[in-house]
Amino acid sequence: MILPIVAYGAPVLRKVAKDITPDYKDLAKLIADMWETMYASNGVGLAAPQINRDIRIFVMDSAQIFENQENDEKGQYPDEPGIKRVFINPHVVELEGEEWSYNEGCLSIPKIREDIMRPETVTLEYVDENFEPHTETFNGLTARIIQHEYDHIEGKLFIDYLKPLRKKMLQGKLNDISKGKVRVDYKMTFAK
Questions:
Q1: Whole-angstrom Cα distance, residue 16 to residue 31?
Q2: Annotated catalytic, 67?
Q3: Cα separation of 183 and 83, whole Å?
Q4: Residue set of the binding site
Q5: Cα angle at 104 between 93 and 150, to 5 degrees?
Q6: Where are the domains of the chain?
Q7: How far is it, in rounded angstroms, from Cα 70 to Cα 145?
Q8: What class is the 5-189 domain?
Q9: Which residues belong to the annotated binding site for Fe cation?
Q10: Contacts of 7 (CB under 8 A, 6+ apart)
Q11: Considering the entire predicted model, what is its pTM?
Q12: Residues 125, 136, 149, 154: which is the catalytic one?
């Protein structure tokens, strides 16, 4: 089932999400719905707060970025061909490497894209959908998407990395998003 994406301004986007246990109600259905919602919205990642759940889970698929690349773009990133994965109860162990810029957007903040600096690699402890534990290091675009989605479960948004002046310049657009004055081609719910 395609779920509505929560828009900028909703309190759930600013909450630190809670870990869940293997007996979380209808977890398999929630994960399936998150995948369906992400793909229907043309996203590469989706965190539970974006569907109004304050739990530590996100899905991401960096492989689709590489599948849709032009031939002259191939081989630019060390994580090619990307991954598709579910992260439950993730916690960052380490951020490493030089920070690099990439133009990011967010399903909860439609029609705004900004160049954001993030470290090259991220090491995470997490459990998968079978609650098997993992500690893994990711790099390239995969690391970037993971850091972006991880921020969601920490109550942070990509616009928090902007310089104050730039954020002030976007404030009108952000206010419009929170009031529902934005058109998107996916289901969205707005703060009241």
A1: 20
A2: no
A3: 30
A4: 106, 148, 152
A5: 25
A6: 5-189
A7: 20
A8: alpha beta
A9: 106, 148, 152
A10: 108, 109, 110, 177, 178, 180, 182, 188, 189, 190, 191
A11: 0.95
A12: 149
